[in-house]
Protein 1
Amino acid sequence: MSDPGTSSAGTVPSRAQVWLGRTARALSGLAVVGLVVVVVVAGARFPGEGTDAVPPTEIPVPPTASTLVCAGPLIQPDDTGRGDSAFDPTPVEPVTTVTVVTSVPDRDGSSATTVAPLDRSAVTATLPGGGSAAVVPDVTGPQVVRAEPGTAPARVAAASAGLVTAGDLRGLAAASCQQPTADAWLLGGATDLTSTAQLVLSNAGSTPAEVTLAIWGPSGPVDLTGERFLVAPGAQRVVVLGGIAAEQRRLALHVSATGGRVGAHVQDSAIDGFTPAGTELVVPGAAPARRQVVPGLAVVDSTVGDLSAPALRLLAPGDTGTTASVTLLGPSGVTELPGAGAVALVPGEVTDVPLGGLPAGAYTAVVDADQPVLASAVLTRPGSVGELDDVPSVERAWAASTAVGRSGVVAVPSGTRGTLVAGAVATGTDPAEGRPATATLRLLGADGSVLAERRLRLDAGSTGAWSVDQLATGSGDLAVTELGSGPSVPAGVVGVDLVTDEDAETAIAWALVAEADRPDGVLVSVLDPVPVPRTTPDVAVREDPRLGTR
């Protein structure tokens, strides 16, 4: 009989021998796994002989079409059904035109531009490829400009202009047509007893857009109870701001769209008793940033305390207040204005900084802060006293903040004279300390041809202003002091194309000031340039032979 402590195969292994065997088997398994991993990684890194010999292929990314949305005729306050009864119907109908201009320096002729109503139900005008221009008269609704690209992105601009010569809506309401957006910041307008503000939303896309609003006033954010606005494809919607944000002497808006992109502007109208005090379109400006630049401040003489003097509008939309440093770059450099240098901003409260007493001339406002802010400016032109008025009429124009150093095109509204206002803003801490700024300027004629090409040079911290017709008939490089104030020579300029020097130490911020002379005073608007789309770089593509396709 066998011993219970033994087996038929021999002596039972000890505990140490059992663990040693298990450890050996585990290590051998790990070695196998490690070898598999090495083989897989090596195969991934070195897929096979000849792979590195396959050269990458540069696939060009074609430029996309450019779409602009143009405002339609001015909206009568009573036409909305909820207008302010203090406004009377205008005794004359607004005259609305759309001016379109394209600039193609290489004139490849492969691009074309069409103008159509917002719903694309017809074609209002067609511009051939290459440089061209057109004026669409008697516009009855918002328009869409679509420019097909050639070998490069289309350089296109359009301007909508509504002219009213008498009545409560007297004024020139002109603005550059906009690229549709899902995010827009507008700083301007009011809804107090003397003012009417209407937000106009235009959807040129093929899908509905749902729009939400945020509004700020002089006392902080306005409670809108989460109201949303649906804008159908090819349609326009008007929101009377007095109905949702009443009694606001100063306004700022943030428009957010989902599902589609929209064009947005505010029609701002004011009266002084029964005397017109200006009608203008407030257009989107730059998003909140620690530096804002407002070009195109062409001001006339005014006095300190004058209620109709120009003003700078500021807002810190976040939860933290800040002190904004305001620098005014004038014809001879930095211009000091008492009370406008440092402005304390309470978070969420819209603040106006009066510019009364500023010497007549052209300026660029630079606003710096340690928190993101918004900025815009309102210009004024005094008129005469009418037969039934007790005070002179006033014309107003809103200037939005813009990006500096971007190339762009601006159309000169039909029936106006244009003045180019350009400021040289250094990109460092001090906007007036830097090298001179340079750019190439093209003046475009009624047939789209380049009437003249100039080199523009501005000293850092200065602002220059020139009649576009003078620019077209001048010669040589242009410095801020070169073209005097002599009589202009009509040259039929319908567009200005400015090509900036990218990544320069000192950048140019510019706008077009359009004016129309009337017997009772000068009407004015400020138009921002339409930025030129950036060229998309080519994409490098390499064939992977492991996929088995060619």
Note: DSSP finds three helices and 36 strands in the chain.
Protein 2
Amino acid sequence: MERKAAVESISRIHQLDTSVINKIAAGEVIERPASAVKELLDNSVDALSTRIEVDIMNGGADLIRVVDNGEGIHPDDLLLAVSSHATSKITSAEDLFSVQTMGFRGEALASISEVSHFRIRTRTANESQGLEFEVNTGTASKPQPCGCPLGTAIEIRQLFANTPVRRKFLKTTKTEFAHISEQFTRAALAHPRLYMVLRHNNKVIFDLPPSDNLIDRLRLFYGKKLADHLIWVESEIDDVRIWGYVSHPSENKSTRKGQYLFLNGRWIQDRTLQHALTEAYRGLLMVGRQPISFLYLDMPASMVDVNVHPTKSEVRFRDGQHLYRQLLSTLRTQFLSMDLQSQMSLSKQSNIDPDTITAPDLTQQKQNQMELTSWAKNQLGQAATDTPNIQINSAPRSISSTPDLAAPFTSQDAIPLSHFQKKVEETRTYSNEPADLVMPASEQKTEQFADIATADLRPIQVLNCYIVVEDKGALTIIDQHALHERIMYEYFRKRVLAQSVESQKLLVPLTIEMSPKETELVLEHAEMLNSFGLGIEEFGGNTLLVTSYPVMLKKVNLEQLVRDIADNLDNAKQPSRRDLLDDLITMMSCKAAIKAGQRLTQEEILSLLEQRHLIDDAHHCPHGRPSALVLSHAELDRQFGRMG
């Protein structure tokens, strides 16, 4: 009877306690420390601040402090500031369709103060002294007078103090701070005229002076290289203005993480506009690559509904198709008016002034041409005879990256041969060429076995992509990239597991500027990357140092490799170390393998087929695609009508 009465009591509808309501709201709005930082930054922006300082301790788990010089909170409103659904930004339901502020729900401070040790200090311009107010996990104290400058300072200590389960779900300090850095980045890009400072464990991460030029702030966050490859776009139709920067096709990422969209100063996500961006780059980017963008939309508040998501990151447009067409048209019109060919240079810096180059006489010109031709033939001859170490040292033969030796020299070509050779050697280390086709001799079985395995094969390469071979009475078609990728995968995996990856120290470390979140992710996994032979160190700010690289990947573009690793780490959803290792091995193997469209010599083809017999699974690449298709003799007879 007692149990039945208890069940009936629970099943009856009743009003939830305010504390329970705020905890539920905290679960929806305050997912992690970065969520609290976002809400406080929104409030500081709405308070018309010109300077905002953010201090973080231990990834936000111990302390989040946001100080601004805005309007402050009126003394009579201080208690209401931490009350549920109390706000100064709207008064009626109609106001939801004309919201001009970043926040308007009135949930943030109430939710945060319910699950932390919360303190607020504030002063308005009309008051001679400020007020201090504390709330300890939902229990409010009485406001006390205090001395403080104009504006508001909010401290959040021990976030999720009374919800230990939520606190246990927090990630590592570096991961949580990476998310905070991303929220800070969004606010800083949305409002470049604000002076913004971010510190972590008393170390200054960002000190951003106000700027009227968005490109200056982008340069501080993402470095000069990306900023110099951004394209300005702008259009205005009726009351809708689209403006900002998009990347040159040569600058791209493997995910959409580099795409920022702001609506009236608010960072948002919108699949329709993302699709328009992708469509605009169709044909300009490789499949699977995504453009980088920093786009801003200015439109009347009545044309958009921002009340569709608790964190206000998604909105609903009144006419989304019109925006889609406007963005697509703006980008395509801009691209059609430009020369989007990627420029190639032999060195990072050229010391040659074109104005100082004079046309050579015909005798010297002919002599240079003969020297260059002779040198090239010697190099080709050495490569052809050096069969024990076959390498893929050139771009696809059909698209040559070397000058036409038969073409006449121009004044631009009149550079000493020694200078040309020196520049080629300087750039070879960072080229996009794949690694050696053949594994080290110590990793291979006897030459006799390899000879037997390929003795009766008569392989040919077709379409610069597939190898066709007669094998055991059947026709086998092999995907050269898929097979080599599997070979490299198994070789690299065994080396990593045995902790015997050979690495090469860089004489001059490579510096790479990345976003704050990418920097933190890479540094967090630096120890694991070191097991691959990839040495990563912190250089300061958002710059990383690459100090060493795997010998197997000596011809991979190291900068692009590190950027792709950061994208891979960012996409991982709570991965285990084993999953991360496997994903990174797969990615590195793909980059090291020969590519589709790459012409192979007969020796290189035979070398590749020899290694097919030395691996455990030669039938699939690491991504699961088949590496070979077999067409039997019987099937060929059937197709040609010879059965019967």
Note: The chain has a mean pLDDT of 75.
